[in-house]
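ok so I'm stuck.
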Amino acid sequence: MGGEWPQDGKCAAARDALEGLEIAAVLLHADRLKAVLKEYLTGLGRRVRDLRSKKGWTQEQLAESTRLTRVSIVAVEGGKQNVSVDVVIRLANTLGISPEGLLSSNGVFSSAKWRRA
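replied:
not stuck anymore, here's the structure
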């Protein structure tokens, strides 16, 4: 791994337990944890908004289809709400994408700022 995150927007699996611990240490630095979560939620929200817009749906229509509230949809799309696995599955199914596709398309690990210090 060489102490850097992949630059191609993909998250590589650790080759062994030691490398896995190194990856975890990078992610769990207190000063980075909030930034990681914020970027992740913002990217997820953008992806949900883009997919909803491509379908020509309003936030209300997406809320009804997923059995969530419009307020929840607004919060997810704005990157302001932590999303449970249940909500990810509901959104993905309704938007016609796999949960993995919904989660992996936000490019969280593509930024150079995730390099180890």
